[in-house]
Each structure stands twice: as C-alpha cells, then as structure tokens.
Amino acid sequence: EVYFLESGGGSVQPGGSLRLSCAASASTFRGYALSWVRQAPGEGLEWVSGIGGSGSTINYADSVKGRFTISRDTLTNTVYLQMNRLRAEDTATYYCARGRSSMADRPDFDYWGQGTLVTVSS
Amino acid sequence: QSVLTQPPSASGTPGQRVTISCSGSSSSIGSNTVNWYQHLPGTAPKLVIYGNDQRPSGVPDRFSGSKSGTSASLAISGLQSEDEADYYCAAWDDSLNGALFGGGTKLTVL
User: What is the share, in percent, of chain B residues with pLDDT greater than 90?
Assistant: First the structure.
C-alpha cells in the first residue's frame, strides 16, 4: 500500500514555529528522495526542500534557507519539516512528495501527500 | 535569477493537439532533465512526464514531452475535457543547487 499522511499545519503568528510531518508506508519511503513543495494561495508550485534517500544530501530553496530544516526518520518512515521564524509569505499549502529515485537533485515526484495548510498571520 | 518560463495560458478544442513550452537556462534545463505535472485545484499534483520524455505508468500516450537545449515542451494530443488543469514544468538548477518549477500554464479545453 502506498500512502503519505501529512500533519502539523495550522495558524501561527509571524516569527513563530511549526513542524510538519509526513508519514509514509515503508515501501513508499525507504531509499527514496523526499521533498516538500508548497503552493501559496493563487500562486504556483514552489519547491521548498529535499533530502536524499540516505539522508546525507539535503537542499533548501533560498527563500527558506536558515529558517527551515528537513529531516527523515527511517524507524517511523516519516519526513519532517521544521519551520522557524515564519513569515507571512510562508503561508501556503505544503505537500510532501517522493522522488522516483534516491537522488535529491531530481524533481520527478511520483507520489504526493494531500497537502497541509500553513497560515502565518497576526 | 534562475527561472523556468511558461506561458500563463493555453487552450484547444476537444481532439486538438496543444503544446506548452518551458524555457530555462544552461544551469537548469540545459544541464538536467525536465518533468511535467498536471494539477487540479484542491488535489495533489500528478507527474505526467519525467526524464524529459518518459511517461509514468497509467498516463495516457496522448501526453508526450521533449527537450532541446534550454527549452522543453509538453504536448497533449487528442485533447479531452478532463485534461483541463494547470501544468507545471520542473527541473533541477545546478547554480541554485535547488529545484525550480515553472510559473504554470492554465490549459482550457474550449
């Protein structure tokens, strides 16, 4: 069975923090690169961060570098996105997505979560 | 600034063939493969082309992709009403060390 279950979205004030989680089935998770992609209201898709299949390669978009941290837990088959110092422009639906290989530098995402909404507002 | 440029809109009538372009740079499309997504509002994006011209299992052969130099194209033949959606190209950018999405093209089936 293939599944991605996202959680952790919600409303937060500017400067606050949230941690997004994406739980996957073992067959969906192990050895594959995983990324977070977001879509702000009325806007297009934006890649946020990615982690390679072994967890050793991590990349971030310039817009979130230094504020967001991606990680993966092989015991629970979960990928996380820790978001600190949130800004209004981080308001978006956040999707977790699986790459077709272990390579973090290939945005070929064949499985996606349902998305979780993050709203940053005072 | 590295970007992938798509036309904001495209349209066609049922049965027609439409193409959507994606223009990048030497550090993005010129050096890496291109992927295409179909996105309907309120749903998760769907991969329709990967590796420039490969179709995932289950994607109709009406969808095809190509790449030349720093540009790529998605073609949809035998257009159907269910093809109406937003389409995005995506590629890695070696200069940014990150992935780029195009701005998206809204396809309307007239």
Answer: 96
Closest CA to B93 of B37, B26, B47: B26
Residue owning tokens 């995402």: A109
Tell me what pLDDT residue A26 has: 86
Q: How far is CA A80 from CA A18, A43, A55, in A?
A: 10, 24, 12
How far apart CA A3 and CA B91 sit, in angstroms, is 25
Cβ–Cβ < 8 Å for A45, B39: yes
B48 touches chain A (CB under 8 A): no
Chain B residues lying within 8 Å of A45, measured CB to CB:
37, 39, 45, 88, 90, 101, 104
Residue A105, C-beta contacts closer than 8 angstroms, at least 6 positions apart: A50, A57, A59, B32, B92, B99
Residue B41 has pLDDT above 90, yes or no: no
> Who contacts B82 (Cβ-Cβ below 8 Å, separation ≥6)?
none
Q: How close is the nearest chain B Cα to the Cα of A111, in Å?
A: 8
**Would you call A107 and B92 a contact, using CB atoms and an 8 Å cutoff?**
yes
